[in-house]
Design brief:
Blueprint: E1 18-20, H1 22-28, E2 32-37, H2 49-62, E3 67-73, H3 77-89, E4 92-99, H4 106-110, H5 113-119, E5 123-128, H6 133-146, E6 151-153, H7 165-181, E7 187-192, H8 196-207, E8 214-218, H9 223-240, E9 253-255, H10 268-281, H11 290-302, E10 311-316, H12 327-336
Parallel strand pairs: 2-10, 3-4, 3-6, 4-5, 7-8, 7-10, 8-9
Antiparallel strand pairs: 1-2
Helix pairs in contact: 1-10, 2-3, 2-7, 3-5, 7-8, 8-9, 10-11, 10-12
Bound molecules: pyridoxal-5'-phosphate.
Pyridoxal-5'-phosphate binds next to helix 3, strand 7 and helix 8.
Length: 337
């Protein structure tokens, strides 16, 4: 795994800090909790997509693209980080947003990530929930090509074997920090969606023969499908890195019990997790991903899933900009508690 062999542009503030969460650990009892601060990657309020975009944007340059196009949900953190990366590199950016929640309120539609997409100068095309977004993305690309443009297509979430290299790199970075600090990592837990983050992490951690288990907390698909998606992408990533066979099905674990009513639909567990992280650690989670990921971690701790002496690292994948798209749900929770 020699990442310097792969083209990369620098966009992220790295390494991101690895910090203890003493007050949340004490509040919950059980394992010692740590947080890997990928909410601090620096680009337009940060988040996990920036690491992927370092490799994807380099590939766009290699293809001599003059613009990038991508897709996501209305409050997509990926779309926002792509728009910012494109701005930084002087490329145009076109994004397709799917209203997966069916919400029509102003904050959801125009505040949070959507406000930032606009500030970064991206053009936006809106689609109803249930649209075949992969097909819509290739139609949009075709339209730009007939206009003489050279669009580079970034898949939803930046999740392909190129983007996943960002999380192979994150795995090596985390391992180096833990070794330097003398921190024995027993588990890594994070929110998993389009699968690139988990695929990259497990490829890096398995490729380095660490035997550190990674648990993805799902935000959309059922467990079997999520594990299949992660494994398939991890296998492609390992091939891309010329270490085929480095990842096996046993390395890929997801728990999709915390999705609730669907992608982007608030849950009581998410509201509690966002509130606890904010009040006990001064940390901003998000309503769609890291809030549900932390809700899963909290519930698993309460169920005694982790040993008392264990160290659990929560990978904070970012997303706080989406809080402003969901203010109404979070304020409800605060006034109730
Ligand atoms: C996209 C995203 C995730 C999920 O990462 P995938 O690579 O899509 O699985 C988690 N958290 C946040 C905040 C995200 O924006």
């Amino acid at each position: 795994m020699h990442l310097a062999r792969y083209p990369r542009v620098r966009l992220a503030h790295l390494p991101t800090p690895l910090e203890p969460m003493p007050r949340l650990s004490a509040h919950l009892g059980g394992p010692q909790l740590w947080v890997k601060r990928d909410d601090c990657t620096g680009l337009s309020t940060g988040g996990n997509k920036t690491r992927k975009l370092e490799f994807l944007m380099a590939d766009a340059r290699r293809h001599e693209a003059d613009m990038v196009i991508t897709q996501g949900a209305t409050q997509s953190n990926h779309a926002r980080q792509t728009a910012a990366a494109a701005a930084r590199l002087g490329l145009d950016c076109h994004i397709l947003l799917e209203n997966r929640t069916g919400r029509a309120d102003r904050d959801y539609q125009d505040n949070g990530n959507v406000l930032l997409d606009r500030l970064h100068g991206a053009s936006i095309e809106r689609h109803e929930g249930g649209t075949d977004m992969v097909a819509a993305l290739s139609r949009a690309a075709e339209r730009f090509r007939t206009e003489g443009r050279r669009p580079y297509i970034i898949p939803g979430g930046g999740s392909n074997e190129i983007g996943a290299l960002g999380y192979v790199n994150a795995a090596l970075e985390l391992l180096g920090q833990a070794n330097d600090q003398g921190l024995r990592i027993d588990h890594v837990v994070h929110a998993t969606g389009s699968a690139g983050t988990q695929a990259g992490l497990v490829t890096g951690l398995a490729g380095a023969r660490t035997r550190i288990p990674v648990l993805g907390i799902g935000v959309r698909a059922p467990r079997k499908q999520q594990e299949e998606n992660v494994l398939a992408l991890a296998e492609r990533t390992a091939e891309h890195l010329e270490i085929p066979g480095a990842v096996t099905a046993a390395d890929v674990r997801a728990n999709c019990d915390y999705v609730g009513g669907g992608y982007g639909v608030p849950t009581a567990g998410m509201q509690e997790a966002v509130s606890l992280a904010a009040r006990l650690e001064g940390l901003l989670l998000d309503p769609v991903y890291s809030g549900k990921g932390m809700a899963g971690l909290i519930d698993l701790i309460r169920r005694g899933h982790f040993g008392d002496g264990e160290n659990v690292v929560f990978l904070h994948t970012g997303g706080s900009a989406a809080l402003f798209g969901y203010a109404v749900n979070l304020l409800d929770a605060e006034s109730g508690g």
